[in-house]
Amino acid sequence: MPREIRLNAFEMNCVGHQSPGLWAHPRDRSWQYKDLEYWTDLAKLLERGRFDGIFIADVIGIYDVFNGNGDAAIRQSTQVPVNDPLALITPMALVTEHLGFGLTASLSFEHPYPFARRLSTLDHLTKGRIGWNIVTSYLDSGARNLGQKALSDHDARYDYADEYLEVLYKLFEGSWEEGAVQRDRERRIFSDPSKIHGIKHAGKHFQIPGIHLCEPSPQRTPVLYQAGASSRGKQFAAEHAECVFVASPSKILLKKTVADIRRRAAEAGRDPRKVLVFNLLTVIVGETDAQAQAKWQDYTSYTSYEGALALISGWTGIDFSEYQPDQVLKHIHTNAIQSAVETFSTADPNKQWTVKELADWVGIGGFGPLLVGSAQTVADELQAWVEETDVDGFNLAYALAHETFADVVELLVPELQKRGVYKKEYTPGTLREKLFGEGPRLPQNHPAADYRDLAALAAREEDASVLA
């Protein structure tokens, strides 16, 4: 029986997102990112296409590695200007009933105590349709603008993330017991103080004694996304993430990545099939293959070489202005997105990338593969990717906003539905229930479950300290 293919829309509160230069196309709407209608129109379109969700990327800082400054990024609108993603979710939730929302927010720049309140608020307002993409950031410019000298070391950021998640789990899962909220009008008791607990967290990075400020939301902990594909990132994802976002440009690489994530999840005591892996992908769909190819040729005439190199330089930490277009990319250890460097320099032994080829690849849709063709051709390819790599679905980047997603909804989705590999209706319930077909809360084999009884946890920790 063929497997269901899952789709998210990959977006960002900026101009052009992963396709630098295409903002200049006369049909592109991404310059309207600052208008509410841009987002509500998109949300309604995606729900009509039965997308699982919209995955909203974000960066704090600008891409200033290329030429040692941010001029190219500013000139080409390479993810700058960029507005805050959080404010987009409530209006999109208001015009939809089922669409999920994956919010990217960097734990490097957000204190967990107020951030937990923002996530719980969104989970309440969306009736349990919120997810959080856990990132540790990769731009030094963001760190400097928040008063840090530079980003901490790549792996050290994940050590920090481990404690950050521990704090959130205590707040979401353990601070308010089931039944703490009573709304008892007769006795005039809204909440029972005996069922609400301060988390008394005393760690290396955070000292948080108090209670979570919010009553339990439909999911308590939002659906956990993670977008790190380095070795340390995959380990973090295997332990915590429910959905993992990767950007493998080939089936060979994706198959290895998916197998590695599932193996690590199993070793962490989790069901590896309950960790959904989404690969970045862009599709250009037409009524026929020829029409799709003509569309692609039209789009490529607007791509920006300078904008692509500004993006790649920021992602990898390598200043590509120092390289000639025909130079072959070599592996360099950086403090940015290590998987991006590895993917295009060492991971695929059958391919050597020149700087020009890399810029051309990234010019439409970023690091992920690009599929061009009729609905039948693209559907064939998507099924092949799923069958050959074991990936669960795709985060679709756009070439042109909202034309790319409209073509997917109107042409590709009906073809996938006809083949029985794409849902015709949404599953009721929260985002977690829609994705996994189980309850609204994280399962018992997830590390968050260890923090549901804070009194028992404190007793165990006390016993451990005595034995030590």
Counting copies of identical and different chains, the oligomeric state is single chain
**Total beta strands:** 13
* Gyration radius, rounded: 22 Å
Shape: globular
Question: What is the CATH architecture assignment?
Answer: Alpha-Beta Barrel
The CATH homologous superfamily is named Luciferase-like domain
Q: How much helical structure, as a percent, in the residues?
A: 25-40%
Count helical runs: 16
What is the succession of H and E elements? Answer: EHEHHEHEHHEEEEEHEHEHHHHEHEHHH
Coarse structural class: alpha/beta
CATH topology: TIM Barrel
Q: In which order are the strands of the major sheet placed? A: 1-2-3-4-9-10-11-13
CATH class identity: Alpha Beta
What does this structure look like?
The protein has 468 residues and is α/β, with parallel strands linked by helices. The chain has a single domain, classed as TIM Barrel (Alpha-Beta Barrel). Helices cover 40% and strands 14% of the residues. The chain is built from 16 helices and 13 strands. Helix 1 packs across helix 3, helix 7 packs across helix 8 (251-267) and helix 10 packs across helix 12 (355-362).
